[in-house]
Amino acid sequence: MTDIGNSKSQNKGVLLELLDWLKYILIAFLIGLLMVVFVVQRNSVVGDSMKPALYSNDQLLVEKISKLGGWIGYEDIVTIKTDELRGHEGGPNIIKRVVGQPGDTIEIREGLVYRNGQPLDESNYLAPGIVTEIRKLDYAKITLADDEYYVLGDNREISLDSRTFGPVRLQHIIGRVLIRFYPFDRVGSP
After folding, report:
1. Is residue 49 flagged as an active site residue?
2. How far apart are the first and last CA of the chain?
3. Of the candidates 184, 125, 187, which has an alpha carbon nearest to the alpha carbon of residue 156?
4. Quick one: 1 exposed, middle or buried, by C-beta within 10 A (0-12, 13-18, 19+)?
5. Closest CA to 47 of 184, 123, 160
6. How far is 19 from 115, CA to CA, in rounded Å?
């Protein structure tokens, strides 16, 4: 009779340990899911519109907290959902640089970008000799609404950006690029 009691006790112990492991696996899965949904995600660069900062197939980590807190700043590189962007509908997420925030007046003239009447110094991210051309007159001079951002690609000659589809609403911004983690020879902040 004691052998049966010991066997039941051992089976109960194994079952409890299995349930304990299952609990920790479930907790880890939920934490991972919450991280991907609300905190950080991986993105791939598609195309050359952000050269020389980013190249096609670069792998990025994008943090989403700055969007939730409204901490998207000038020169930040952001990923954007394309579901409502003219010319990008249904395409992959795009990656662009923020040059205008809510309330700013952005104007493109004489090959330069002006924010609130002042020309931007873009020498720290644009290749020498890059000229910013007007794409659509509607977006050549625009004052941004409370939830709008003006975004441009660094490779202005080929980039489809706010010059083409207009300002981007905050709800379409996924997050801010935190770090490039691949290729390994260019790991770091873009």
Report:
1. yes
2. 70
3. 125
4. exposed
5. 160
6. 59
Residue pair 92/86 in contact (Cβ under 8 Å)? The answer is no
Question: Is 136 an active-site residue?
Answer: no
Task: List the catalytic residue out of 64, 67, 96, 159.
Answer: 96
Do 83 and 142 lie in one domain? The reply is yes
pLDDT tens-digit map of 43-53: 888 889 999 89
The active-site residue out of 49, 64, 67, 162 is 49
Provide the whole-model pTM. 0.80
Q: Are residues 49 and 103 in the same domain?
A: yes
Q: Which token pair is 15?
A: 């079952």
Q: What domain range is 162 assigned to? A: 45-186
Cα 129 to Cα 58, 123, 157, distances in angstroms: 24, 10, 11
